[in-house]
Amino acid sequence: MRQGQAVWALGTMSGTSLDGVDAAMLKTDGQAIFDFGQTGYRAYGAEDQALLRAALGKWPGEDGVAEAAELVEGAHIALLRDFVGAELIGFHGQTLAHDPKGRGTHQAGDGAKLAEALGLPVAWDFRSADVELGGEGAPLAPFFHFACAKWIGADEPLAFLNLGGVGNITWIDPTKERPEQDGALLAFDTGPANAPLNDLMQQRRGEPFDKDGALAATGEVVAGALELFLDDPYFPKIPPKSLDRDAFSDMLDLVRELSDADAAATMTGMAAAAVMQAMVHCPALPARVLVTGGGRLNPVMMEMLRAGLDCPVDPVEAVGLNGDMLEAQAFAYLAVRIANGLPTSCPTTTGVRALVGGGTISGA
Ligand SMILES: Nc1ncnc2c1ncn2[C@@H]1O[C@H](COP(=O)(O)OP(=O)(O)OP(=O)(O)O)[C@@H](O)[C@H]1O
Ligand SMILES: CC(=O)N[C@H]1[C@@H]2OC[C@@H](O2)[C@@H](O)[C@@H]1O[C@H](C)C(=O)O
Hints:
Layout: E1 7-14, E2 20-28, E3 33-43, H1 46-55, H2 65-80, E4 88-99, E5 104-108, H3 111-118, E6 122-124, H4 128-132, H5 142-151, E7 158-163, E8 166-172, E9 185-192, H6 195-205, H7 223-230, H8 251-254, H9 260-279, E10 289-292, H10 299-308, E11 313-315, H11 326-339, H12 347-350, E12 360-362
Parallel strand pairs: 1-4, 4-6, 7-10, 10-11
Antiparallel strand pairs: 1-2, 2-3, 4-5, 6-12, 7-8, 8-9
């Protein structure tokens, strides 16, 4: 790869909602976005999801982890074979466990195996170096969000909000030149987004998620349960901060006695309320919030956000971005940054002590 020149990279994300693998091509020099390219998706089947779910919270060497890694590698190889023209792959893997102040962070999947199978260099293990330097290891998309803010020509502070399994927010001052500059970024996980709601839908209805918020739309948010949820010490904690997928699984106990519809409405309200709590940590009110991730497709969640935030809230499609693929594109972007020796996180995105470029490149 030619240092400092724009190349096509292929990024992937196997997210915390365990639905499947996203892949997307991005042309970048690791600083600016030059072009967006081909995208693809491969869903995990029900058996695959059960295998991954059983491995959640586990660490390398524990039961079921090797099988999960093999599944993740196989799904990626099958999906990525269809792409042409990439010079480098950014492989996030599947987070199984995340405990940055304790045991570390664990993404299943070996990038060296992908490099061998696909015949391309693979950047992977993006989070460990950050954790080793005292960081949260997440979120890592913020440097890419900064590049997106430049790409859309933003000239006043804005926020990207990802509503995946877990939620995360990136506040950006786009008048700064570089993401690592003082005051350019503030990022952290907001709280649970879709993961516990999906778990509720699976338990109560045997469905993977509340499509279009249809069930929540027929229920009421129960204030007592919402208040108990908001008592969690995570919300007032000063960022940087990050979450494991199941950090808030106790939420299901708070809605146990409620009807299916009220439970879904209340859990949707909890995801939205977590974002409202997050806004108090932002250095200034953003001019707009751009929403990415599956939650932007839930009209009930979006309506609750619009009602609770003091600025316009739109899906990222409003500015020409693809909210299904932003995270996969982020790992294409971060792969090129690593190949060019550029940092991928900084004290205001992960709390890391110094600028750090996470990741290993295999098969170079
Ligand atoms: N039409 C829809 N209506 C309601 N919810 C939806 C819809 N489409 C997607 N979702 C929700 O979004 C989730 C998927 O979001 P996404 O793909 O952003 O998550 P992820 O990338 O796995 O998570 P993370 O960003 O935490 O790693 C689904 O599991 C579902 O809960
Ligand atoms: C440890 C881990 O995999 N965290 C994910 C998860 O999913 C959303 C949120 O929690 C975010 O912190 C992160 O992913 C995105 C891609 C990130 O690193 O920016």
